[in-house]
Amino acid sequence: xxxxxxxxxxxxxxxxxxxxxxxxxxxxxxxxxxxxxxxxxxxxxxxxxxxxxxxxxxxxxxxxxxxxxxxxxxxxxxxxxxxxxxxxxxxxxxxxxxxxxxxxxxxxxxxxxxxxxxxxxxxxxxxxxxxxxxxxxxxxxxxxxxxxxxxxxxxxxxxxxxxxxxxxxxxxxxxxxxxxxxxxxxxxxxxxxxxxxxxxxxxxxxxxxxxxxxxxxxxxxxxxxxxxxxxxxxxxxxxxxxxxxxxxxxxxxxxxxxxxxxxxxxxxxxxxxxxxxxxxxxxxxxxxxxxxxxxxxxxx
Length: 300
Known about the structure:
mainly beta, five-stranded mixed beta sheet, 1 helix, 1% helix
């Protein structure tokens, strides 16, 4: 049975994208609306902060431990940690100024999958997309008509993706050849339907454990769900915050689950009964995770 250990880190406005670097025992994550990237050392209990040009929707590890892949607004680039400078590599042709990049993760194929959303999501405008970025910096659109793209993580040979507004998640093949037409939520039956299995809120970030099970944050539902690769609900942990955003396994044994949360401010209300909202919740999940995939660009 998963249990909460405590909370760490600063109170963010919109904490997201926790990634554990098993090479250095660092946890990295972002505050999207606070425009900051954090790196915390497990061994030293020391926190470093870098400012982000724009709202960083997500980050990922690269082959250089001092360089992070960062997706911010309409661009994807490399954040060089020692200097804090970003070398932008890709400018996506997103026409709407209200759309920004959001959730993303590197898949076992070595590609970086990243989705976008219209802000604020409460407008319910389905004008976001999900992109697949390859190590040579070429990219393609894989999903269209997305409200709030989330839950990107590998499930077997497929890629899980979710739409918070639809309150559901689907699978898409990682084996699709370049140039394949993009899909929509209507292209296949949902793997995880929040209404059907009684989960609160909507899907946000996700990760997988060593057994292949999915761990999914229920944003606005105050819960963390564990599901099989077939979408069967195994367990649910109720949380002391309403808006968990994304889980990631970490710690030297990959047996601690780090869960980012929304603290409030900007477009988000602040709730006085959530003292740890915005911080990273630490959970003993009772299982081990898998090492985070690494993006290995052909050119750093």
